[in-house]
Design goal:
By secondary structure, the chain is an all-alpha fold. It has one domain.
């Protein structure tokens, strides 16, 4: 549980969510930066080959999100322990968000982060583009958490849960569209 159940909690819910969001954003930027640094290893591959591979991965991710292609995603079976939040409420919240934001110590149920990471690895964009990708990953997780944590309306939660499967699908379409627009064949 991210929030303390009482109004007398030492940390207010808005502050907790701000720390959690900051951790998510920092974790996303760190992961994207590491992938960007590793992308130098793909430089010997001709640019057309790297772009074609990135687009192929994006199409596979899109097919997986729409249920056309049943692909298993690599997963880290370990979850972030709850005592991270219980020992130090403020710093633990930041740490919890950071670990979720990196995407390496938690379940990632969508192919979109994998597609984005492989895209960064293959196309070697600018550092700013890599940072923006990491911020996007962290912000997506923060937005999902904010909707879930701040909604007290059970009907809203039921409606949102029926729409949630569409978020990864739309994200997969957006990643494929971005790669196509940035590709050298489009004029990017």
């Amino acid at each position: 549980m991210l929030f303390s159940p009482g109004w007398r909690a030492s940390t207010r819910q808005g502050g907790v969510l701000a720390l959690f969001t900051a951790g998510l954003l920092l974790g996303g930027v760190l992961s994207a930066s590491v992938v960007w640094l590793l992308s130098g290893l793909s430089e010997p591959i001709p640019a057309d080959g790297r772009w074609a591979a990135a687009l192929a991965v994006a199409v596979l991710g899109l097919l997986r999100e729409f249920g056309v292609l049943p692909l298993r995603l690599p997963q880290n079976a370990r979850q972030i322990p709850q005592d991270v939040l219980q020992r130090r409420p403020r710093l633990g919240t930041l740490q919890f968000g950071f670990e979720l934001g990196t995407g390496v110590r938690t379940y990632v149920t969508s192919a979109v982060p994998y597609v984005a990471a492989l895209g960064l690895l293959l196309v070697h964009p600018s550092p700013a583009m890599a940072a923006a990708t990491g911020l996007g990953f962290g912000a997506g997780r923060a937005l999902t958490a904010a909707f879930h944590l701040w909604s007290r309306d059970e009907d809203w939660n039921a409606r949102a849960s029926t729409r949630m499967p569409w978020l990864p699908r739309l994200a997969a379409v957006a990643v494929l569209a971005a790669l196509l627009l940035l590709s050298p064949w489009y004029g990017g």
